[in-house]
Each structure stands twice: as structure tokens, then as C-alpha cells.
Write a structure and sequence with these properties.
The protein is of the alpha/beta class and about 500 residues long. The protein is about 35% helix and about 25% strand. The protein has a six-stranded mixed beta sheet with strand order 4-3-2-5-6-7, sandwiched between helices. Pfam families: VWA.
């Protein structure tokens, strides 16, 4: 069956990113100097000019910092764009030191605060602009801000340290870290930052569960070949349900590092990653089964493939998993997995997902045990965090395409969909194709957000016989998802 996809042109500027709380955290230290700070003001002015600013749409806050941080604009200070732009023109410059970590904590505590205009359930974004290395630690402060639900972008100028910017920003750095060699080059960065930031806002809006639940003004119309019309209300969210509902059977084991280099907070983030992974699959004894092993000096079985028959029981079992600490013996843990996979089902795809934050002990190589597992038909994914070793990850997975490296545990959620997509796409195929659009294993689907919506629509309706599908959304529905779906997205049978 052949299908054609028809999509209206994408909206320009930032029209699709209609709802967000965005705070600019601006370095005003003495190394910047007055004439360069004016270029920072111009940069802020250009970025804000492209946003749909109002109290019901995009709210903007501004913090400047040197040794101490100062709140200039709270998220409820101005009711329209004009007020924000006028203030940017007179944003004070005082000089001083560079305490970026303190500014991040200040912003979390005082700006992303409901009493100061931050909205519950609305995407939160921080854009840090700095010209040098911080004089105080930034890693933990940035982690606290990200874990408060804030997506952080870092813009570095001149002497800013790339590694520090990566510690501050969200993952992946190519979407959240920007470096220019002079303040004059902030201007050409404006469009790039604005485009990426707004696209990320739209993408995150599509993923939000509360957006799915709130689509009361959306309708799905299916017209079958016999012209029988069926109208369903409030089910547009089905377009954005987990892709892996179409994966009928698989046996999946997680092997999670529980060594002492991982702090308790990061261990909890790792457990949350596994729980979110569980939610993407149809769990059941005849469908997707999952097991979990943790390890440090020795591997410890938490539960095997046959232990739990539904997602809720799996979730509770992961939540109760305790952090054991110790050293990192990944090779020994991989050797143990061969025995545990004995309970796997015949002719069912089998996967092992390894998560580690460091290199295995020198006395404990990973290559041979990993090769033995792959020889049994087990497909291995190796996920490395922080100080993980790239070469070792490739030895574990056997294929660089099944290795993932992130700078911190918070970034695990950014790769979740890539791993799930790779598992869900049938073996032997690199992508699912719809006309000129492709849903790839690990690549970004497309820069066109509307195309992404349409592809998700196709994935979940592909089993229906010869249908015409129209997705219509009420223009007055106030969410950025509307701007994604408002162009009529049609999947039309060519036959």
C-alpha cells in the first residue's frame, strides 16, 4: 500500500513555541567591558524580539551576575514584549567577578518560583551567557537547576571554557552549547540559537503527557473506502503514544552500574530512566519481558525475565532497587548475564542494555564476555555516563551505532527515544519510510516538526486498511502543539 504525505509550510521564527518560561542569565563581570555588554544587550533584544511574549504565552525573565546575582526581570514583571525590550536596552552593567554556579542557584530559587511568575506545568528554559570560567563550582548547581525541570542552554564568548559549558547545559551539547570567539559574533548566532531553542520547546511540548490529556479540542477523522465516517473525539493523543506498542515480543535485561562513583541522586535518576523505558513497551508474559541486574564488585540479580507480568510491578521493583556501591567490574557482570539469559524465549529478540559511569577495573576486561553474549544472539546497547570509556563501550556493544555517551545522568532521558526507536524498528531495516520522510533508528527524524507529527500518525495507523486520515486542531487551543498540528496533516492512500 502506498501513501503520500501532504504538509503545510512550517511557521517562521518562533511561532510554534507558544508557551514557555524563559530566563536569561547574563554574565556582567569586569572582563566583558562596557562596549561588549552593549553587544550582549543587542543579542538579548534580537532573541526576545522573535518570541511570542505575553503573560499567557512566553514569559521572559532576566538575571545578571558577577560575584552576586541580581534579578532584573521576573517572569511576571512585564505583560508584553515591548516592556521586556525596553528594559533590555537599559540593562545595567556593573563589572565584578564571575560566580556562575551561584547565579544558577539564585535563578532556581528566586526566578523559577511560582510566586515570581513561574508557571506550573509549563516548559522552563534558562539561557546562560558568559565570557569566562566560573570562579565557583557549576556542576552541582547546574544539576539542581536541570532537575528542577529547567532546560539549560550555555552561550560562551571568548575565554569561556567548553567543558564547563557542557557541565552547565543539557545534553546533547550540539543542541545546547554555543561558543563564539568574540562578542561581535553573538549577532550571527541569534538565528541559530533561536531556531534550535524554539524547535526543542516544540518537541518537548509534543512529548508532555499533560498535553496529550488536554487535547479536548482535537478530533481524529477516519474515512474508510466504503465512505463510512467514524469520528472520534479526544484521541489525538494516540498519535504520540509509545512507538513500541507495535513490538510484540522481546526479552530485555538491564545491567546497571551501582558502584561507589555514582552518588545516590544519580542512581535514582538511572532508575527513573529504566522506569520510563518500561512505559514505552507492552509488558506481559507473551509480549515484552524485562529483567534487572545491578553490579559493582559483583553482579546482583534484582529480578529475572519471568518475575513480573505487568508494568506496574516492574516499576515498583525498580524503585526498590538499592545502591550497593563498591568498584566497577563490568566484565564480571557481563559474564554472569550469559547464565541469566537461559530463561529467554526461543525465536524472540533478546536485548541487553548496559549503563555505566566509568571504565571497568583493569583486572576485569569486557571484550570476551561481551563477544560471548553477542554470539548467543543477544543485541547489546552500551550507555556511558560521565567518565565512561568510549572504546570500552564499543567493545561491549560490538557496534558504535549501539553505544551512547552522555555527560551526566540527567542526560539519560535525551537518549531514551533513540534506544527505543532502534529496538522497535524491525531487524534488517535502517528506517521506516513514508514518502520522502523517514523514521530512522537513531537520527533526528527531520527538522520539520509537522513532518514528525505526521510520521507518528503513520506509525500508529499503518495497520488500518486503505484510509484517509485528517488531523484537525482548534486554533484557539493554547499550546505549542497546535502550531505543530494546525496545518492539516493528511495521509492519503494513493491507490
Amino acid at each position: 500500500m502506498a501513501y503520500t504525505i501532504v504538509i503545510a509550510p512550517k511557521a517562521s521564527n518562533c511561532k510554534g513555541a507558544n508557551v514557555a518560561d524563559i530566563v536569561f542569565i547574563v554574565d556582567e563581570s569586569g572582563s566583558i567591558r562596557t562596549e561588549n555588554f552593549q553587544l550582549v544587550r543587542s543579542f538579548l533584544h534580537s532573541i526576545v524580539s522573535g518570541l511570542n511574549v505575553s503573560l499567557t504565552r512566553v514569559r521572559v525573565g532576566i538575571v545578571s551576575y558577577n560575584t552576586e546575582a541580581t534579578a532584573h526581570v521576573y517572569l511576571n514583571t512585564f505583560k508584553d514584549k515591548a516592556g521586556v525590550l525596553q528594559y533590555i536596552n537599559i540593562l545595567p552593567y556593573n563589572g565584578g567577578g564571575t560566580n556562575t554556579g551561584a547565579a544558577l542557584d539564585f535563578t532556581r530559587e528566586n526566578i523559577f518560583n511560582e510566586k515570581k511568575g513561574s508557571r506550573k506545568g509549563i516548559q522552563k528554559v534558562a539561557v546562560v551567557i558568559t565570557d569566562g570560567k566560573s570562579q565557583d563550582p557549576v556542576t552541582e548547581a547546574a544539576t539542581r537547576l536541570r532537575r528542577a525541570g529547567v532546560t539549560i542552554y550555555a552561550v560562551g564568548v571568548k575565554d569561556a571554557t567548553e567543558s564547563e559549558l557542557k557541565d552547565i547545559a543539557n545534553h546533547p551539547p550540539e543542541k545546547h552549547v554555543f561558543i563564539v570567539d568574540s562578542f561581535a559574533n553573538l549577532k550571527p548566532l541569534t538565528q541559530t540559537l533561536q531556531k534550535i531553542m524554539c524547535k526543542n520547546i516544540i518537541d518537548e511540548a509534543i512529548k508532555k503527557p499533560d498535553i496529550k490529556k488536554g487535547l479536548s479540542n482535537c478530533f481524529l477523522i477516519i474515512v474508510f473506502m466504503d465512505v463510512k465516517l467514524i469520528l472520534f473525539s479526544n484521541i489525538c493523543h494516540s498519535f504520540f503514544s509509545p512507538v513500541c506498542e507495535r513490538k510484540d515480543e522481546a526479552d530485555i535485561f538491564f545491567l546497571m552500574d551501582a558502584s561507589g562513583s555514582i552518588v545516590d541522586e544519580d542512581f535514582s535518576v538511572m532508575k527513573k530512566f529504566i522506569i520510563e523505558f518500561i512505559h514505552a513497551f507492552n509488558i506481559g508474559p507473551k509480549h515484552i519481558r524485562m529483567g534487572l541486574v545491578k553490579y559493582s564488585d559483583d553482579p546482583v540479580l534484582e529480578f529475572d525475565l519471568a518475575a513480573y507480568s505487568d508494568a506496574r510491578k516492574l516499576e515498583r521493583a525498580v524503585e526498590y532497587t538499592e545502591h550497593i556501591r563498591g568498584r566497577t567490574f563490568t566484565g564480571k557482570a557481563l559474564s554472569k548475564m550469559g547464565d541469566l539469559f537461559v530463561s529467554r524465549r526461543q525465536n524472540v529478540p533478546t536485548y541487553l542494555i548496559v549503563i555505566t559511569d566509568g571504565k571497568s577495573d583493569e583486572s576485569d576486561p569486557v571484550r570476551i564476555p561481551a563477544e560471548k553474549l553477542r554470539a548467543q544472539g543477544i543485541k547489546i546497547y552500551a550507555i556511558g555516563v560521565k567518565d565512561s570509556n568510549e572504546a570500552e563501550l564499543v567493545e561491549i556493544a560490538g557496534d558504535p551505532k549501539r553505544t551512547f555517551q552522555v555527560t551526566n545522568f540527567d542526560a539519560l532521558k535525551s537518549i531514551k527515544e533513540d534506544v527505543i526507536r532502534d529496538i522497535c524498528i524491525p531487524d534488517g531495516k535502517d528506517s521506516l519510510t513514508l514518502g520522502k520522510y523517514e523514521l530512522g533508528r537513531s537520527d533526528q527524524v527531520t527538522d520539520d516538526v509537522s513532518a514528525y507529527c505526521a510520521i507518528m500518525c503513520w506509525v500508529h495507523l499503518s495497520e488500518l486498511p486503505k484510509v484517509l486520515v485528517l488531523v484537525l486542531c482548534n486554533q484557539s487551543f493554547e499550546t505549542s502543539l497546535v502550531d505543530c498540528l494546525f496545518p492539516i496533516i493528511s495521509v492519503i492512500n494513493d491507490d
